[in-house]
Amino acid sequence: MNDSSYLSVKVTTENDADFFYEKRYPSNIAIGDLKAKLELVTGVLASEMKIDVYHGDEKLCTLLDDNRSLNSYLTADIVSDKDKDIHLLVYSPYGKNRRFEEEFGIEDRFKLTEEEYEKRVDSLLAFKMKRKLGRFAEVKNKIIEETVPNDVKVGQRCRVRVKGNPTRTGTVMYVGKTNFKPGIWVGVRYDEPLGKNDGSVDGVRYFECQPKYGGFVRLADIEIGDFMEQEMDELLEEL
């Protein structure tokens, strides 16, 4: 076969971020045969193996049919691309790479310190960070959820709309984290006794108000503005 009949691929495993290999395989290799070769490289059993194919940042497909050839899953322009940048992400739905552990009782992998590994730009860790996968997506969402907004401040007038409840007006009394649920909550002192508490929940006081005048809502349910106090008759009409 000439060079154009081979594909250079990057091989990593989802179950062990220390694996990283550059390999060349015939472009027309059957998926079943490819799995057998990758078992020797990754330690993931061929019978359990799943393979996701990426081209650059884009996930192309999952190699499911053992009888199909590798190039049948790829477009002609990717196969002919000189730089190709094809990445095979190998994993097992059953967890760790069991072949090396079960047959040899060892972990067949090159060890790096955590600091050295984090500096590599060609690792699975870098791949997940770039695409915000796994724990990196969770960290991103957590940061967004726990950021206190600059435009919601204690003392501001507000209007609260929660599905299944009447529209209520009040004053912002607290903005921040709470002990009762994660994330950012806004404590509101309502103009009328349509709340659930007096500014305290489960024995923890967040602000002061009369019983049934206090409540906590998510940021998405509150609107800041110069709202006038609603009369009780208007609120009852909305019920």
Task: Give structural attributes.
239 residues, five-stranded antiparallel β-sheet, 7 helices, CAP-Gly_domain, 12 strands, Ubiquitin-like (UB roll), 2 domains
Q: Give the proportion of residues in helices.
A: 10-25%
Compute the average pLDDT: 78
Radius of gyration: 28 Å
What's the shape? elongated
Poorly predicted parts: 99-110, 139-144
Q: Which CATH C-level class of the largest domain is it? A: Alpha Beta
Biggest β-sheet: count, sense, barrel? 5 strands, mixed
* Number of structural domains: 2
Number of strands: 12
Structural class: alpha+beta
| Intertermini distance | 77 Å
As a percent range, the share of strand residues is 25-35%
**Looking across the biggest beta sheet, what order are the strands in?**
2-1-5-3-4
**Topology as a string of helices (H) and strands (E):** EEHEEHEHHHHEEEEEEEH
Q: CATH superfamily membership of the largest domain, which one? A: Phosphatidylinositol 3-kinase Catalytic Subunit, Chain A, domain 1
GO molecular function, one term: microtubule plus-end binding
InterPro entries: CAP-Gly_dom_sf, CAP-Gly_domain, Ubiquitin-like_dom, Ubiquitin-like_domsf
Protein name: Tubulin-folding cofactor B-like protein
Domain CAP-Gly: 176-218
Short description:
With 239 residues, the protein is an alpha+beta fold. The chain has helices at 31-42, 76-80, 98-103, 114-119, 124-131, 135-145, 232-238; strands at residues 6-13, 21-26, 50-55, 58-62, 86-91, 157-160, 168-177, 184-190, 200-201, 204-205, 214-217, 222-224. The chain has a 5-stranded mixed beta sheet, with helices on one face. A 5-stranded antiparallel beta sheet has the order 11-8-7-6-12, with no helix packed on it.
